[in-house]
Amino acid sequence: MTAAARSLLCSWALALALSAILVAAGQRWPQPLAPLPAAVWALLLLPGLAMALLLRARWSLQTPGTTGEHPNGARRGDAGQPPTPEG
Questions:
Q1: Please, are residues 68 and 76 in contact by the beta-carbon 8 Å criterion?
Q2: Whole-Å CA distances, 8 to 12, 16, 22, 54, 62
Q3: In this predicted structure, what is the pLDDT of residue 87?
Q4: Are the CB atoms for 70 and 81 separated by under 8 Å?
Q5: Cβ(53)–Cβ(47) under 8 Å?
Q6: How far apart are the first and last CA of the chain?
Q7: From the CA atom positions of the chain, what is the Rg in Å?
Q8: What is the C-alpha to C-alpha distance for residues 43 and 86, in angstroms, rounded to an integer?
Q9: Residues 74 and 80 sit within 8 Å (Cβ to Cβ)
Q10: Quick one: pLDDT at residue 9?
Q11: SS3 letters for the chain?
Q12: How far apart are CA 82 and CA 73, in angstroms?
């Protein structure tokens, strides 16, 4: 079994165990919980917002020309012509 498959299986088993614990806790809870609108909105929006902030912090897009190269590999000033051999 590869390391990636082992990691995936471990994560899946952990999620399944957590789900079983939550189901057992819900069956033993003495009274139903009334959903609070603020808590529901927080649970819906915060994970997505956290993921967006994490991606924004780790994945910055550079604008063409800031590093001296165009995204297609052309150098600044080439105007789309293929690079000439330097020598």
A1: yes
A2: 6, 12, 21, 22, 33
A3: 47
A4: no
A5: no
A6: 51
A7: 26
A8: 58
A9: yes
A10: 94
A11: CCHHHHHHHHHHHHHHHHHHHHHHHHHHCCCCCCCCHHHHHHHHHHHHHHHHHHHHHHCCCCCCCCCCECCCCCECCCCCCCCCCCC
A12: 9
Q: What is the mean pLDDT of each run of 10 residues along the chain (87 residues)?
A: 90 95 88 89 94 85 58 56 59
Rounded to whole angstroms, the Cα distance separating 15 from 37 reads 26
The amino acid that residue 24 corresponds to is A
Q: Which amino acid is at 77?
A: G
CA 10 to CA 6: how far, in whole Å? 6
Six token digits for residue 42: 């927080």
